[in-house]
Design brief:
Blueprint: H1 2-11, E1 29-37, H2 43-61, E2 71-79, E3 91-98, H3 101-110, H4 120-130, E4 140-147, H5 158-167, E5 170-177, H6 180-185, H7 188-194, E6 199-202, H8 216-227, H9 234-250, H10 255-264, H11 277-282, H12 294-297, H13 301-337, H14 347-361
Parallel strand pairs: 1-2, 1-4, 4-5, 5-6
Antiparallel strand pairs: 2-3
Helix pairs in contact: 2-10, 2-14, 3-9, 4-5, 8-10, 8-13
């Protein structure tokens, strides 16, 4: 028997151990915290933020690091508003870091201005301490603070606040709404300089130059058709779908901003896995049958799989076509801009320019 066992051991060696599972490649992340002065004189700034959000999203969607498209996480604060509690420093965290861009848009449209004290140092300090900042070397961490009162107001020294930011690898960029020299005189320039950031002065009431293109109407139509490929599920489903339509409606009268939004909806950064079946399946999330809409609950598993796959293909085709049209649109705009005077500094220009500058130093390509 011993001889037989030895023979079996020699002729049938143990099976090789399976290879270890491959680790998922982690995407680099851009964390963007926007701190907006919502005092009485800032209606123009808020309006720029609402209409230019999607252009900013699209610029970051074209960024790459080692060939990977970074995830965009956006946080939002308001400060300097008398509707906010004095004991909080007239500061409110509107949103922590989120990838839900429709939610960011919804909150921007909900902001209302009212006079108050603008404590720049304190709102920077709050955002540094309360937000969940990444510590990963591949990620880009950026604060943008915009306002028009002296940077020195309040009990928290801005120098202390930006020092805390820099020790965590967070870049602070300052956007003064007014004359550039006045912003320098009131320490907005110094605030950025101490935090490895960029100082920019903008006209918050400037009208953003719009260039109509032959591709706009088709992009807008395809973007509307994209909405029909979303399948709401769970308690967040109805809210998410309603929010999506509402943000389309908010920009319906602003042609260029609406086109930028529809382009953003075709990008990898527009993800709604918390309420959309197709995105949830793509993200590997499991959904309870009871959370599905009635039409899907009544299907067999095979029918359900086939239907979701069909909708996913329809969405991918629409997104691909929008991306193709966007490429042609950008070429057209670039050609038209050659004959136009230089554009005024606006919020989107300030954000895009500063992030590109900081991102290139950290290995991002734009």
């Amino acid at each position: 028997m011993l001889a037989a066992l030895l023979t079996l051991a020699c002729t049938h060696p143990p099976a090789a151990a399976p290879p270890p599972p491959q680790k998922a490649v982690r995407k680099p992340v851009i964390q963007l915290a926007i701190l907006l002065d919502t005092s009485n004189s800032m209606d123009g700034l808020i309006d720029q933020a609402r209409t230019q959000l999607w252009r900013v999203v699209n610029e970051f969607g074209r960024a790459r690091k080692r060939g990977e498209i970074p995830e965009l996480h956006v946080a939002l604060y308001e400060y300097g508003n008398t509707r906010l509690a004095a004991e909080s420093g007239y500061i409110r965290q509107v949103l922590p870091f989120t990838t839900d861009l429709d939610l960011v848009s919804e909150e921007l449209f909900a902001l209302q201005t009212s006079g108050g004290e603008e404590y720049c140092g304190q709102v920077i300090d709050e955002s540094v301490q309360r937000l969940r900042w990444s510590s990963h070397a591949d990620d880009l961490r950026v604060i943008f603070i915009a306002g028009n009162e002296p940077f020195t107001q309040g009990n928290v020294d801005y120098r202390t606040a930006v020092a805390k930011a820099t020790t965590r690898g967070i870049i602070v960029n300052t956007i003064f709404c007014g004359d550039k020299r006045e912003g320098i005189r009131t320490d907005w320039g110094t605030g950025a300089q101490l935090a490895d950031g960029r100082y920019v002065a903008i006209d918050q009431n400037a009208r953003v130059a719009e260039i109509d293109t032959p591709f706009d109407a088709q992009i807008a139509t395809l973007g509307t058709q994209l909405n029909d490929t979303y399948i709401a599920y769970g308690v967040e489903g109805t809210k998410g779908l309603q929010r999506q339509y509402a943000q389309d409606a908010n920009l319906s009268s602003k042609k260029s901003a609406n086109v930028e939004r529809q382009i953003a909806k075709s990008s990898v950064n527009y993800v709604n896995s918390a309420w959309d079946v197709v995105d949830a399946k793509k993200a590997g999330k499991s959904i309870e049958i009871s959370d599905l809409p009635p039409a899907l609950r009544s299907m067999t598993p095979a029918q359900r799989e086939a239907y979701i796959g069909k909708i996913a293909k329809e969405r991918a085709a629409l997104q691909k076509r929008i991306a193709e049209l966007d490429a042609e649109r950008r070429k057209y705009i670039a050609a038209q801009q050659k004959d136009l005077p230089a554009a005024q500094n606006t919020l989107d220009e300030a954000i895009v320019g500063a992030v590109r500058e900081a991102g290139r130093k950290r290995g991002f390509a734009f």
